[in-house]
Structure prediction request, 915 residues.
Amino acid sequence: MKIQRRHVALTVVTVVVGVFLILPTLYIIPLSFDASSTLGVPSGRWTTSWYVELFTDRAWSRAARNSLQVAVLTTVIATVLGTALALAFRVKTRTNAIAYAVTLAPMIVPAVILGVGLYGLLVSWGLGGTLLGLVIAHTVLAIPFVVVAVGSSLSQVDPDYERAAASLGASPVRQHVRVVLPLALPGIAAGALFAFVTSWDEVVVSIFLTNAQSRTLPVLMWTQVRTEVTPTLAALGTCLLALSTLALLGMQILNRRSKD
Amino acid sequence: MALAVETRPPLRSTGFRPGRFFLLAIPAAFLIVFFVSPMVLVALRSGEPGWVASYANILTSEVYLKVLANSFRTALITTVLTVLIGYPYAYATARVTGTLRILLLALVLMPFWSSLLARTFSWLALLQDTGLINQTLIGMGLIDRPLPLVRTQVGVIIAMVHIMLPYFVLPLFAVMVKIDRSLMSAAESLGASAFRRFYRVFLPLSLPGVAAGASLVFILTLGFYITPAILGDPNQAMIGEVIATDLETIGFARASALGIVLLAVTLILFAVFAAARSAYVARSRA
Amino acid sequence: MASSSLLSAAPSALTLQSVSKTFNGAPAVSDISLQLNPGEFLTMLGPSGSGKTTTLNLIAGFIQPDSGSITLDDRDITAIPSHKRGIGVVFQNYALFPHMSALQNVAFPLEMRGVRRKAALTQAHDALELVQLAHLAARLPRQLSGGQQQRVALARSFVFKPGLLLMDEPLGALDKRLREDMQLEIMRLGRELGCTIVSVTHDQEEALVMSDRIAIYHDGKIEQLGTAEDLYEHPRNLFVADFMGEANRLEGGVANSVFTTGDWTCLVPGSAPNGRVNLLVRPENTIAVPAGSADHPEGITGEVIESIYLGGTRKFVVRLDNGRRFQAVVSARTGPELHTGDRARVSWRPEHAIVLAAGDSSAVTADAA
Prediction:
């Protein structure tokens, strides 16, 4: 088979772009194990000392606790509110269309502007630098993801199931609790995962809303990168990365399961 | 699948109106308080010393204009580069099938969901004078001395292209995959060479996807904060970073005004792209 | 052993009075009225889009009528939401809850009525026994075949002893053999349970086999409501006549019990309307003899263009001299043997003629001229 020139060119470009995509994503992993204390100079010696430092440092463990608390709370609240919205949006009305746009708007508005705005509001309420303020902010950012994920799952639930439940005596509330929500569970779970990752990795808005006590891991990493770059940051980055990857895999598995 | 043929009865018929109100009202209240009102707050307080004075300050100041120009320039170059390397990648992904396609998509999705800070940090390491990129270039004999890549807009652009690629490739892929393959076969049977087929049939059909992806990349890059702040030249800051620093140094009003300027530019760009798209679609239907 | 406590639901009487429903400006059903006696089996029969499913949805309460009323056993249920009507529904695609086992599906309506778990499961088990699926009670719907799912859906719809059962194209998704089995099964259940049943179908044979009465739907209206015999022997218009089976047709005029078309005449019953009419004869009532025969000299002449042997019967397609095509179905053993190309005469007994005033119908499949 004659291999055409253009196919070769395309393959080369695709491979190069593929490497370009994946290398910087994964490069941080070897960095975190490299013994070199200067950034970017691989020394060829391996160590886990950066991880040890990461896990023993007081500032890091407090930031980790903050991140975890905020992420868990955000996940719960965003999933509940987002699922409620997704249920409400099943009916197409003008009000719902507007509400849908408002719900998704946080995805489009530049994060710095959201940061400034939420800073102004929450500080005036005395919530600046608190974990509660952070949960609120992260929830606003996470809700759109939940709404889209749950909405997608709900749209695949045949309306006949609700009618069947109604004909069998189930009130609308029971229709939702016993039939609709259980069937939409994969979407809800995916939405919860999205919410968790969104909160866990969130950095821009969090910069505005945290102080030295309430810093989350990404914010701590950000301030360190700006002041003093150490390979410990590579270890941290790898931890952040590991979690996102697990979440992504989780979503893929849920996706496959819901297709059955 | 549903009850035989005729129009499906609307869901409302199962009698859930009052409940549905609360389903919408409670989260809506949350969003109004914690999303809409901060935006309104920013808008209102942006006119703090005086509407005209506030915005005139920004739009006539050389510093800010330079920041805006820089942001635009970076966004433009990033978008062009992303389109140039993203298009073939999307094309390849759309052409292959099965495991290969899943692999190519995974390569695009994984960075998409990975921590932004982790990736930016990787770039910080890669772009160092002693980093992998420079070492490779020197090793290949292309340069004698390391290129300064960190703390320059060049470094920012390289990293931003990496970050923006998924935002471009994914919508473009979605469009390409829907392009009817038989059109290409028809063109071939009519005597069009491979280049012609691509240029006259496939490319025009993929343009709406390119436009959508490119406009998204441009708008996102414009307001980006983290990566340009870490990798960029402090003297060539982009607007995202300036907003953040001004909040601390100058005050809420100034940061708000800058934010509104960025938001206005974002919305105007959205509108322009949407209008251009409708015009294109209308023209190609005529 | 099926518990007889499951059976003997008190069957309900159902009345629809001038029910109408419009969707997006297009009327789906107009002025539908019907009255069902307790225990009756009614089939709503008609082509796609004729309004029969809409009527079912209205009775079930999934949609509200724009006007008219629906009464169940002297109780006006028009404004009552579907979950309070207590009517059993079997959906075309069964709508079995995929995340529950067959048993849990059947127990669902009982739980909704406050029956305790254990009792609900027992009664559900009994219902499954009635449809011979007790051994598959623990299976999930996706682990059951189409026919089995359907029986579970049936069990679920009658386990709570409704007085009225609605079925939407219940046999549509089954293959022919299964369909015939299920027809008998449903009829048996209907008799044993004693509830009133309303079924929707576009399959005329199914309607004939299973129901006490049939309502023919067309363009959102009921063309005729009656027993199968009523509809077949005395259709009210061309649509019903054509829907219930094949009908040979002649156009002409009637005066004084004499029907005239072109230059041919015949006698018709005195009850036939005068003026322009369509005269219909069923193929099995059509007599065909060779042109050379001395019998039936009054018949119309024509040429046999098809002769088909069907096992127990023979079917002849005759192109009459006036251009019309007639089908005659005769016994293969005792009937004439005509071959393609033979000249023949067709006729019928005057009492077998169905005479309908012209203009008495909607769109009709014209005989190929």
The longest strand of chain C covers residues 26-36. Chain C touches chain B at residues 23-24, 28, 48-49, 51, 53-54, 56-57, 61-64, 81-83, 91-93, 168-169, 172, 200 (CB under 8 Å).
